[in-house]
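Dear Dr. V.,

Thank you for agreeing to look over these. As mentioned in my earlier message, I'm a first-year student in the group and I'm still getting used to reading structure tokens, so any feedback on how I've presented them would be very welcome. I ran two proteins. I've put each sequence directly above its structure. The first is here:
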Amino acid sequence: MAKKSIRTLLDEQDILVSPGVYDCYSARLAEQAGFHLVSTTGAGLVNARFGLPDVGIFSLRDNLDACRAIAASVSVPLSADAETGYGNAATVHYVARDFEAAGVNAISIEDQVSPKRCGHVVGKEVVPLIEMTAKIEAAANARSGPDFLVVARTDALACEGLDATVARVRAYEKAGADVIFPDAVRNEEEIKAIVGAVAIPVRINMGFGLRTRSTTPLMSVPHLKRLGVRWVSLARLLPAAAIRGMQQALQAMREAMLEDEVTERPDLVATLAEIQGLMDYERFFGIERQFLSADQLARKYQAR
């Protein structure tokens, strides 16, 4: 069955929520939980794959390889973080084509100066408006069909303020952006102003759980919907949850090492059956039954 396009989902639903995924485990878990869309977290990818901070050192090929695997592992659409577009407007043309060919359904391109940094980290700079609009035009022109969306992310709030940000998002819409993504918004007044400035959907990045050092205050999905937001990203939810879960499991193991008895903690770990189900082992076994000979199957599975 073909994946629904993000454009279709935006038409069908009042608001979309996409967990930030960084590998096939997290992507499949998000789909299994009932989410209709997933989006890669650039920080999560570079942190998990290389153990490095999100400061613009994740290459295009590294990003494409990760996104290709994630897109192939799920039946829901994937939006990818394409960083600053890996160059100027001419190179963005090829970047957009590469992501579309990798099975990605949307890319976000940000207007930070390269090397970029995480949107909630100090020291950001943005490129001139004309440079970013050219990147958006190039990405929109490069796609093979209208279902591949160009998400224009702006970090101008931290660098230039609200009025300049409003001017930018209007220019990005005119340049061909399908979605506006202002990162690190500081309050709901800024969200209202940006939503009111454009006729295309607005995407907001939102935290989850404790009130961390994120720039954007926590707001509920229904409240964001009332503000006119159409797409909510939960970029750090799954990486942060995975880190906490692994910390707890490792601490429990350290404590169990001191005990002269076997320790079971089913509350901390998934079962083997759950992992095999998530990875769809049964599909592989079905392919074996379809194509292996009776003798081969007997040798592999007969009781010993």
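The second protein is here, in the same arrangement:
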Amino acid sequence: MVLSQKFFNQPTIQAAKNLLGKFLVRRYRGNNIAVIVTEVEAYDGPHDLASHASRGIGERNKVMFGEAGCFYVYFTYGMHWMLNIVTGPKNYPAAVLIRAGIVFTKNGNKKILNGPAKLTKHLKIGKRFNGRIANKKTGLWLEDRGINIKPSQIIARKRIGVDYAGRWAKKPYNFSI
């Protein structure tokens, strides 16, 4: 079942946890590539100093202030695309970064995409998805395929690469299974 905008219009921390075990699906050259989401990171609101939204609305981050269920895709370090999904109510800037996943190849092998850049590179995700809604029409969406992740299976850690954010860097907003 394709996740609707309603799924993403929930508190960011809850949305992040609920994304674990869901499938990120990319239609590419007539084929669907599905990646099970195994790690995410939450960026929750205008006061979260690790979030791009903490500096106010701008051209780069304006998608975060929009509708839940839209992708926020940005370029970092001059070489990597990062894929986020906007969560919560409009004008409350929040998003979840999809950090890692597992894809099963056609021959049944498992490929671990352990990093947000590896994930976007594998799925050929770039700027054209920024601001687009997560659905089949855009060629990138999320699905619930019935995998139930229990709270006891979720590991919460501090976020990665945001040491500049002071106390916000230590918030346990990185979730993995």
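From my reading of the second output: The beta strands are 23-28, 31-44, 71-76, 80-86, 94-104, 110-114, 140-143, 155-157, 174-176. The chain is about 10% helix and 35% strand. Does that match how you would interpret it?

Kind regards,
E.
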